[in-house]
Design brief:
Elements (H helix, E strand, L loop, with lengths): L28 H9 L9 H10 L6 E3 L5 E5 L7 E7 L4 E7 L5 E6 L11 E6 L2 E6 L9 H5 L10 E2 L6 H6 L7 E3 L5 E2 L4 E4 L2 H16 L8 E7 L7 H7 L6 E5 L2 E2 L20 E5 L7 H14 L4 E4 L16 E5 L1 E2 L7 E4 H17 L1
Parallel strand pairs: 3-12, 3-13, 13-17, 14-18, 15-16
Antiparallel strand pairs: 1-2, 2-12, 4-5, 4-9, 5-8, 6-7, 6-9, 10-11, 11-19, 15-17
Helix pairs in contact: 1-5, 5-8, 7-8
């Protein structure tokens, strides 16, 4: 999800998280999510994630990849039916190496919107041709000085470097590192107590997981509409993959499946973006890029109620892939799960919300 929103990093404050047992559902939705989260895929470098998603598709699903790199799966009647397009993005924020310095350190540039201070003093991985190379982002000089910390541009742009331990450019190149290599926080999904989980790139690997759950639950022979599931590239850099799809596809409804950045934290005001983790998926009725028609929102709420799926709705910041279709007359419906600490290394999600989101996507595909 394209935004710069972030809420306070206070995991201990999550309600009930220390009171419940760790989720033991090894085959549940978190198993798929973990596989995707732990696969690096910085914007413009999504191939690994695409390959992983392809391997997780049901046996009946035939996929194709367009020239931009979007992965598409279609099912249902091709003629005489409405068309629905579900879209979730495969990419994540991170860095790309721009140059190797003579001293062996790496210059990098940010890809997507995030607070670069989150990387300061952290371990990272450079995903190089010969394999992953560990590195660190050294704290800037005087980083404990409040005046320095608050200065505009104090940490970012040229100031961000990655040290992989190489004493020279030649040694770094010998490790397989080259300009263009992506850099991420180490890819790891951590299960927490109370069916919570955390990791970098839950946005939008959870959306991809929901699409996979829906595909696995569908019987393509019973679909009344033509349904296309798109796993898009380059959302974090400007909805670029979706822009390509919008030039050729004209669905009757586009359903973007992406994060709902929630204020479900003791340090946030509940007046805005208050969707509670563990209380079900969310309809993003309004975000920074789209206002969903009220009749569509009410139809989704009714559909969920009839099926016994807990659901929430609200407004939040950020854009969604479906918004680029509206200029061609296609309504945009954004379905989400609530998350906190978005675009940080510790995005938090509840497995119950992800389960419900997968079910909701399938219901819309089958019953719209």
């Amino acid at each position: 999800m394209r935004h710069r929103a972030l809420v306070a990093l206070s995991l201990a404050a999550l309600p009930g998280v220390l009171l419940a047992a760790r989720s033991a559902r090894e085959g549940g939705s978190f198993a798929i999510l973990q596989t995707l989260v732990e696969t690096p895929g910085v914007s413009t470098r999504e191939q690994g994630v695409r390959d992983r998603i392809r391997s997780l598709l049901p046996s009946w699903a035939k996929s194709e990849t367009d020239a931009r790199g979007n992965l598409l799966v279609a099912a249902g009647p091709e003629k005489g039916a409405k068309s629905l397009l579900f879209i979730a993005h495969m990419d994540e924020t991170g860095y790309l190496v721009t140059a190797i310095r003579e001293d062996g350190s790496l210059d990098v540039k940010p890809v997507g919107g995030f607070f670069e201070t989150l990387y300061e003093g952290q371990v990272v991985q450079v995903h190089a041709a010969k394999g992953d190379v560990g590195g660190v982002v050294p704290p800037r000089p005087n980083y404990l000085d409040a005046a320095v910390a608050d200065a505009p541009g104090a940490f970012g742009k040229e100031a961000v470097r990655v040290n992989v331990g190489a004493p020279s450019r030649a040694v770094a190149e010998g490790l397989g590192i080259a300009a263009g290599d992506p850099v991420t926080i180490p890819k790891s999904f951590q299960r927490l107590a109370g069916s919570y989980g955390s990791g970098r790139a839950v946005d939008d690997r959870a959306g991809c997981t929901a699409l996979l759950l829906a595909l696995r639950g569908l019987d393509p022979k019973t679909l009344r509409h033509r349904v296309t599931f798109a796993f898009s590239v380059e959302e974090e850099t400007g909805l670029d993959g979706a822009q390509v799809l919008a030039q050729s596809l004209r669905p009757d409804l586009v359903i973007a499946v992406d994060t709902f950045v929630s204020s479900d934290s003791p340090l946030e005001r509940p007046a805005f973006a208050h969707a509670v983790l563990g209380k079900g998926p969310v309809v993003r009725a309004i975000d920074s890029s789209n206002i969903t028609d009220r009749a569509i929102v009410e139809k989704v709420l009714s559909l969920a109620k009839q099926a016994g799926v807990p659901i929430q709705y609200g407004l939040t910041r950020g854009g969604n892939d479906g918004s680029v279709f509206t200029e061609f007359g296609t309504p945009d419906l954004a379905l989400s799960w609530p998350t906190v600490h978005s675009h940080s290394p510790v995005e938090v999600i509840h497995e119950r919300d992800l389960d419900g989101l997968g079910t909701l996507v399938r219901l819309v595909a089958e019953r719209w």
